[in-house]
Structure formats: C-alpha cells, structure tokens
Write a structure and sequence with these properties.
about 90 residues; binds fe (ii) ion; mainly alpha
C-alpha cells in the first residue's frame, strides 16, 4: 500500500507539472478549472497518505473508488478537452 501511495504522489508531482506546463504553452482553454481538478487530486492523495499512517481500514476501498472516478471524469473528460491544442502546439497530428 505504501508503494502505491508513493507512486500516486510521484504521478501527481511529475504528470501534473508536465500537463500544466503544456496547457500554458498551448494556451489551452479552461486552464484554471483544469488546474483546480489537479489540486483536488493532490489533496486527496495527501489524505490517503495521512489515512495510511493512521491505519484507516477503509483506505483501500476509498482509493479504488476515487481512482475509478478520476480515470473516468478527469482523464477521459477534462484531459481530453485540451488534447487538440496540445497536439497543435507540439506539431502532432
Ligand atoms: Fe489533467
């Protein structure tokens, strides 16, 4: 469990920074709202980390549920909205 939380924290630090830099560079729409969703995710991972060290038995189920919603709503929704502008900026078809 500890390594999973560490992976999530690494994901948050690296992936969000890269994504946010690309959004700014490509002048993607709704950057503020997108960054706000990232910030909510960051806080949730911090909560998971805190719960882990307080032996919260519901942690695993809560993490799975949260990650499932994140994959559906953010990655396939919010992230997809700016994909075209990033592709244009990077010269990808
Ligand atoms: Fe995102």
């Amino acid at each position: 469990m500890h390594s999973l939380i560490n992976e999530l924290q690494n994901y948050v630090i690296y992936h969000f920074k890269t994504e946010e830099d690309l959004m700014v560079k490509s002048q993607s729409p709704n950057i503020d709202l997108h960054v706000m969703e990232h910030e909510l995710f960051r806080k949730k991972v911090e909560e998971f980390h805190h719960s882990y060290y307080n032996n919260n038995e519901e942690l695993l189920n809560e993490m799975i549920s949260f990650m499932r919603k994140w994959l559906i709503i953010h990655i396939s929704g919010t992230d997809a909205e700016y994909a075209d502008s990033i592709k244009d900026t990077l010269g990808i078809q």
